[in-house]
Sequence to fold (1522 residues):
Amino acid sequence: MPTITIDGQTLEVKEGDNILQACLNAGLDLPYFCWHPAMGSIGSCRQCALVQYQNPSDERGRIVMGCMTQVTDGARFSLDANNAVEFREAVVESLMLNHPHDCPVCAEGGECHLQDMTVMVGHRDRRYRGKKNTHRNQYLGPLIHHEMNRCITCYRCERFYRDYAGGTDLGAQASRDRLYFGRQQDGVLESEFSGNLVEVCPTGVFTDKPFLADFSRKWDLQSAPSICGGCGVGCNIAPGERYGRLKRVHNRYHDDINGYFICDRGRFGNSYVNADQRIDYAGIQDADGRFTAVDQASALDTAGAWLKNAKIGGIGSPRASLEANFLLQTWVGADQFSSGIADIERATVDRQLQILQSTRAINPSIKQMESADAVLILGEDLTHTAARVALALRQAVRNKSLAMATQMGLPSWQDAAVRNLAQDALSPLFVVTSYASRLDDIAQRTVTLAPDDIAEFGRHLAARLQGEPAQSPLIEEFASSLAAAERPLIISGSSMLQSNIIDAGAAIAEALCLDNPQTMLSLTAPESNTVGATMLAHPNNLSLEGMVERAVELDVLVILENDVTRRLDAASMQKLVASGTKIIALDVIENATVERASMVLPAASFAESQGTLINHEGRAQRFFPVFPPAEQRLPSWQWLLQLAALNGNSQLTALTQFDQVVDACAASQPAFAHLNEVAPDRSFRDRGQKIPRQTHRYSGRTAINAGVSVHEPQQPVDHETPLAFSMEGLNRDQPSTLIPYVWSPGWNSNHALQKFQAEVDGPLKGGQSGVRVLISSADGVAPQTTTPIGAAPNDRWQLVPVHRLHGSEELSARSDEIAELAGDAFIALSAETAGQLEVAEGDRLKVIANGDSISLAVKIVDRMAAGCVGYSYGYAATRGLIAGAHADLQRDTDWRPPQPSLIATDRQSMAVDRGNPHV
Amino acid sequence: MTQQPIQTDLNSVLSHEEIHAIDAELSHVPYKSGAAIDALKIVQARRGWVSDDCLMAIARHLDMSAEQLEGIATFYNLIYRRPVGEKVILFCDSVSCWISDCDGIKAKISQHLQIDYGETTTDNRYTLLPVPCLGACDRAPVMMIGDELITDLDDARIELLFGAHNEARTD
Amino acid sequence: MEPVLTRNIGPERCPTNLAAYQANHGYRGLRKALTEMSADDCQAVVKNSNLRGRGGAGFPTGMKWSFVPRGDACTPGHKYLVCNADEMEPGTFKDRLLMECDPHQLIEGMILAAYTIGADIAYIFIRGEYLVAIQRLRDAIAECYASGYLGERILGSDFNLQMHVHPSAGRYICGEETALINALEGKRANPRAKPPFPQVSGLWGRPTIVNNVETLCNIPHIIDRGADWFKTLGVGEDSGTKLFGVSGKVNNPGCWELPMGTPIREIIDQHAGGMRAGFQLKGFLPGGGSTDFLVPEHLDLAMDYNVIGAAGSRMGTGTMIILDDRTCPVGMVLNLIRFFAQESCGFCTPCRDGLPWSRQVLEDIENGAGRSEDLETLAYQVKYIGAIGNTHCALAPGAMEPLQSAMKYFYDDFVRHVDGGHCPYHNGTGAR
Fold:
């Protein structure tokens, strides 16, 4: 390791790093703006200046930029030299020429990197006497607020949005001190990762729009470490709360998973927690279909009566915690339990689990995926099904350019130089899907095939990799690229709801593994705990459809956080309701299942409860309550313990604490043995204290409710976790799983993260969080023959599910902004099919399948396999459509647009109408 | 505030001749966006300026986003994103011309044409723009009117060039 | 002195066509190189000639070329030669002359340079406003293709070269070689970080040499007549001849080819005819708008890179701008700073925001609203913006050169503005 000297202090530094990284790693406060740990250096802001001395006798030295200067053994620097100090202050003074100093009304205030750096360099008095430049702001959609006057021109927004995330509709315009970062004209930002601008911007140009309408300062937020429930990736998030409302979600760094960035579903898809449709009270439905609100005790009394000597069934949920699912299954018994996943999906996720438990290939983390030098995607539009993975692949395709840079001795952090050198050179990415994917722009080759044909293509490719002759030049191209790669990555998943595609992906990976043990195979999972629910499954479990059949034999059916109407067709649902069994539904928000329940129990959301989720790679991670459940809500695991107690379940009556539930679950099967290592238990103390959820500067804790009542309530006590609803305690050096927010003296913005990292852009000091519970035997995947679903006959169309980041996922779609972006349900056609049917974008088509007719808006897509049409998956209007089914299409000329529905931009005026005091 | 996107059939914006000229440039570049500046100049040469519609049509033709092309168009001095008059006066205000009292000459032009920098005469004949040093400093002050370089400017020369314009206006 | 670069340029400045150029030994150097000399031979001659870049920085041309990877050291693909004809330095008017009047000389120089470095594609990146030069270069290139000087197997050799004229869309920063490369790639012309230098990773990521027009125009003569001959041309330390120019209040502003090392006094008094009646020489920028002022005490210095450097300025482009005693030095510096602030690409902070800050201070001083602390602020800005390395490229440090030297030589003028509350030269109107 090279040794450098900074102000007389000798430091061992990492080979190849730049001086800024070295300084930050050494705990030195060297201010910076344009550099970003994940995006490297461009040398634009000139803020990280320090003095470098040329030789031992050099006493003057010269100013160099830390981010642009590579460490060399024996080099000598000074941060404290007068000219360096003066220069850094001058940079901030220049940036302040046009900055409006509107901190009091700026949403960034209090967590603003510009504020921090200004204080750090000691700039105070402005000498500039000219007029400030001003700009017009743009409407950028419901998620991001634009305030260009605050811009300090660090180029980070453009570099993240365009270079890192592949967005095309935001960039630098004009020049000199009139630079402008925005769109060509007003409009909704197209990138699925636009929300990261909020955290990437070092000041308040891009701010969280929904948060702005319901604003609190960072120091006034109560936060907890959490896991995103938006998909199967399990990004780590840090939600913040005040006044009982979930105010915003920030990225929470996980070195192996999300790093610094999350998708917009994860950031903006959680405001359903505050929705009016949240279930606040238990309710009992009367014969007229009206619910009567009752308190917890009465609800339990009634439930107790129903449960006495009753035959009970349970439906679990792939979006509920492992613990809640475990309790329900344990209580009702495996024979009477369904994981709550419909057959069509279960077939794929079961197979997925088998593959991941036996494959020779590496089941990679996202960080590992970023190292892939050739990627094949089978059947997934990843940006919409596992968005963070898609973002990682945008980095993976750059490995070719990084290799070119290495060859030239250019460090990878020299971002602009590497891009100029490599130009449009990309590592191979192959996309084989039924319809256009959002990664097509970086694909070396896209192939458009019907679902069965994707599987067949994959099988041919696997055969070629096993030594058989290639069936086509395309197969040869794919095979030779993948075989030549050092770290090939195969990605498939369940989004097409066809296990033969996953099988084909596994076969390719297995074939590659014969020669290359670095081969990776990653399978996406549809929901936040699909893998957990599937791992928990017992062979005796019923399928969801099986449970419908069984319902007539049951007295009570407990449905855990699952809107089964999304998974069952209308006839099955009718059958379930007609069975006469009493349905007790536990859920967080009103939905079609809850409406049909005999009793509704208000469940705490992810933000008010704790639990374990197992992500697509089989990593168990813990989320913690951000704030105590309000009203009559209880976490599902507590409801279930109480219900089981009423029922006199001997296995569960001994359990009262969450940690005990975890222990019981851990004991239930060998794979879960280390479940209690996922996070520290409730007895954990750091220097005698719990970890505070509130910042040290949290205001008005005792008076926060004075507007309602002057009687100060006792601060809630958290008996279940190592976290406190308090500001007392230290947020420093704790296990990574327990970092609720990042802050460090002088670092109020999210850049404080580096104080929690063992090294910049590296793992956290507090160790890896989460435990991999899905371990492969590496025996190899046993081949499985699957019958193809079969192409549609000539006069009909095969339905393929089209996933949308905004709209396809159940809970996020209940957040106003996501609902606005989701738009109407649609039927996706190729231009050719549209021509054949004589319809244009926006026209309506009747989709007739299984005897139902649904009218959908036409959307024309760049690619759609012949004979196939896509339907917007997970939308209410397309609920009756089944993946792979054959449909008739007819022009719908009768359709009239409905009354405009409430959109997010109306929220502000609504909030005012409601007299919300916090707007 | 939401602004409606401009509704135009972008395919019909550029002429065949323009598209042909742009395509000829594509042969020199390894990827399409490499011809962005050439394409902007081709269109501007025929229309005087680059309208939003043209910008979007060019961007589409080159597989670029409108943002990317706008970033380029607004960077360069000689790409006009607003309409200009029949002739653009590029008036040198750099140091050698300044020493030779170009400020006084510019005031005369403004007086004759009743326009300041960035403005176009009411009859749409001239747009006045400042330009960096035109490289004819031995003959300062200088300017270009359209394609023509005019050197050794003085009041009489300006009177000769624009006096008639003033009269035409008063008529 | 026997004219070299301007041997085909008469006082009436008529352009030469191919026939005329050939008649005066045109393309003799190229013929010699392609028949008798290897690329390495050419490289050695140019290196030995001590030719230094005529665009402003004075970097030795042979050394610049030597950084281009050759043979096995170079990955397969194109190499590029780019002529920087984006003449936009305030007060500079030499390249226009060379291109308008003798386009073939430049083209021959470029073919030779391309041969030496192994480039197969050449660009002339020229100011969009230089319409006459653009047309004459295009005509000349067409003549060259027709006569076998460009295209495949040039003069029967194995050497191929394509040449294109690329008129700029207009931006001073395009004169910076890496910004120029970005402009050629159709991008925003922000300069690139160096290293990597363009010699290794330039246009489209490939090895690229960018040379100034005048530099390239020297090459045919160096190849044709040898390094030793070239070295004898200078009368001082440096080799060759140079186009020197003078603008401002002199009797005969113009541009002349003179030996390197010609004394400044000779250029101003003899060639430019001395100061106009009623004007005294107060100072001068020796080589364009981004060089430090020199004053009458420097008149006897030779126009050599190191001599001018030792006097605290730079030879720059060799085209002088004269400050007379009736022109306000503050106003002149303000004009220059306005220009540089306007032409900043906006990439780095000291340039983008620092120059407008300097402009504001100078405007206040020039308009009589200056404060005594403003002079300290200007000195602070010079220190902050002025050093190479403080900024991403050399634009802003160049901008500081006239300011810092004006503060040095004409400090009293700044003080008079502040103390008097108006400009002593034009009554505080700011206009002339």
User: Anything to note?
Assistant: The two ends of chain C are 40 Å apart (CA to CA). The beta strands of chain C are 80-85, 121-126, 162-167, 208-212, 241-247, 254-259, 281-285, 319-324. Chain C touches chain A through 40 residues (CB under 8 Å).
